[in-house]
Design goal:
Elements: E1 4-11, E2 15-24, E3 27-34, E4 39-46, H1 54-72, E5 82-88, E6 91-97, H2 104-111, H3 116-135, E7 138-139, E8 148-150, E9 157-159, E10 166-167, H4 188-192, H5 198-214, H6 224-232, H7 246-252, H8 263-276, H9 305-318, H10 323-329, H11 332-337, E11 395-400, E12 404-409, E13 413-417, E14 420-424, E15 431-437, H12 443-453, H13 455-458, E16 463-472, E17 475-484, E18 494-503, E19 506-515, H14 519-532, E20 534-535
Antiparallel strand pairs: 1-2, 2-3, 3-4, 4-6, 5-6, 7-10, 8-9, 11-12, 12-20, 13-14, 14-15, 15-19, 16-17, 17-18, 18-19
Domain Protein kinase: 15-274
EC number: 2.7.11.1
Region (Disordered): 276-298, 336-398
């Protein structure tokens, strides 16, 4: 886990906090020293909702402690060890073992996807962890690569961050009518609100294995609405790299939870693959590929696909998932056929700010997506009562003198360059660009296609270029995404997302570029920028 410098303080007279290891939706994790026992630990500072009244805050506080104590009872080599639970200033802190090493998401971002044998090893470890948790009545509910740690040196796989875990028989910290979890890894029955059980964690594990093998979830789409549609309706296409363990992956990604492959069976098949190099046929039958028309006995299906999508969108909207979900709720056509109705996440036209002779491109500069982001698609901002955009946590609202407003990440600085305006992260790792021009012949799609045709001339090592017709705010738009080699060997390969659309007689182009290893964060920066962009 990466570190960030922060002030040093001591809690409970014992745990000295040093540096911040990471931040998630449920709080901040610190590297700390247990001064009583003289050992390094990780301390999770639980974030409490400051908008609650005193009684609600107390109930939330009590639930947090109850759930943390339940997780502390779990004993398994692949579940994070909870050493202690303390309070300081009425705020709960969970003291855990410190795992030296990054998350699986970090590993994929740095080194790329893993092979089938390593995916099987990770799967066996996590299945064992889940079987132990489920036997104790604890559901994780947020299985994803960012919540799986890989210990340096030993390769030990550790399931962590039970921050939104559900304990059997209890109303949990996060169960207040809001959707919780990461949509790309969330089971369809959880999205519908129909049920949540151990099977839901297994679906998430299936999506995680696909990500480990290919680099991205099979449910990644250009918008939150697209993700929800993919989980509920679209044919599930497992990556080619999953072929050696495809029976397990498809068994876990069975939409009907009653037919989903049990943990014990999945573990048996993966162990057999590790031992022999071959995956035996599953014992239970049938485990059929998950398709939109997958036959399920009506009496056993407790939800409809259409109803499930609507419920999921409503839940996402309640949870503040952003304008994408809200827009989809109002657009039946978008929700039905998967057409994005808000910003897509792929595009890119790259120019480098500050170059004496920047390459001429048909569109804006290069923003940088990062794959190891800890945020989820629900991080996009919304709108205030007067219709102005609002910035999500970790962003600020920039009212640009060039005639627009949008949310940019904290720490990004503005740098104008001719017709283009850049917002740059420290070191220019990420580059967010905006360009406003007069409309051009053929509209946004033609503009992006012309730019893509010149991609090899203007972007060294240009490859994997793709231009897609889409829509933005109900207006025709075009999304351009591509990979290139950067402007120098030191800079290295980069990936760019670029969206172009016309509005009120002007053409707008917004893009983000980043190192290829940081695509996930770049996608978030791009989504937030487009979703909060408002012309003057």
């Amino acid at each position: 886990m990466g570190t960030e410098g922060d002030g040093v303080r001591t809690i409970a007279g014992r745990y000295r906090l040093h540096t911040r290891l990471g931040r998630g939706g449920m709080g901040v994790v610190w590297r700390a020293t247990d001064e009583l026992l003289g050992r390094e630990v990780a301390v999770k500072e639980i974030a409490l909702d400051e908008q609650l009244d005193a009684a609600q805050a107390r109930r939330q506080h009590d639930r947090t402690l109850r759930e943390a104590r339940a997780v502390a009872q779990l004993r398994h080599p692949h579940i994070i060890v909870v050493h202690d639970i303390v309070e300081c200033g009425e705020r709960p802190y969970i003291v855990m073992e410190l795992i030296e090493g990054g998350s699986l998401a970090d590993r994929i971002a740095r080194q790329g996807p893993v092979d089938a044998a390593e995916a099987a090893r990770i799967g066996v470890a996590l299945l064992g962890a889940l079987r132990t948790a489920h036997a104790a009545g604890v559901l994780h509910r947020d299985i994803k690569p960012a919540n799986v740690l890989v210990e340096s040196g030993t390769g030990r796989v550790v399931l962590t961050d039970f921050g939104i875990a559900q304990v059997a028989g209890a109303t949990t910290l996060t169960e207040t009518g809001s959707f919780v979890g990461s949509p790309e890894y969330t089971a369809p029955e959880r999205m519908s609100g129909a049920r949540t059980g151990p099977e839901s964690d297994l679906w998430s594990l299936g999506a995680l294995l696909c990500t480990a093998l290919s680099g991205e979830s099979p449910f990644r789409r250009d918008s939150l609405g697209g993700v929800l549609h993919a989980v509920v309706f679209d044919e599930i296409r497992t990556p080619p790299q999953a072929a050696p363990i495809e029976a397990v992956v498809r068994g876990l990604l069975e939409r009907d939870p009653d037919r989903r492959m049990p943990a014990a069976e999945a573990e048996r098949l993966l162990r057999a693959y590790l031992d022999t190099g071959r995956t035996p046929a599953p014992t239970p039958v049938p485990y059929t590929p998950t398709r939109p028309d997958n036959p399920v006995t009506p009496a056993r299906r407790t939800y409809s696909a259409r109803g499930m999508l609507v419920s999921a969108l409503l839940a996402a909207a309640v949870a503040g998932a952003g304008v994408s979900a809200a827009a989809l709720l109002m657009n039946d056509h978008g929700a039905g056929d998967g057409t994005p109705v808000s910003s897509p996440r792929h595009s890119g036209e790259d120019g480098r700010p500050g170059r004496s002779t920047p390459p001429a491109t048909a569109g804006p500069g290069t923003p940088t997506p990062t794959p190891s982001a800890t945020r989820t698609p629900a991080a996009v901002g919304g709108a205030s009562s007067d219709g102005r955009p609002t910035a999500p946590s970790g962003y600020r609202l920039a009212e640009d003198p060039a005639g627009f407003t949008l949310a940019v990440p904290d720490g990004f600085t503005r740098r104008p360059q001719g017709q283009r305006v850049f917002y740059l992260s420290p070191g220019e790792t990420y580059r967010l660009g905006i360009k406003i021009t007069d409309p051009e012949p053929g509209g946004p799609l033609a503009v992006m296609r012309r730019a893509a045709a010149k991609g090899p001339d203007n972007n060294p090592g240009y490859r994997d270029g793709r231009v897609t017709a889409t829509s933005h705010g109900g207006r025709p738009a075009a999304l351009w995404e591509f990979t290139w080699d950067g402007f120098s060997a030191a800079e290295g390969p980069r990936h760019t997302y670029d969206l172009c659309w016309e509005q009120n007689g002007r053409m707008y182009d917004v893009w983000v570029s980043a190192p290829v290893g940081k695509v996930r964060e770049a996608r978030e920066y791009f989504d937030v920028a487009v979703d909060t962009f408002v012309p003057a």
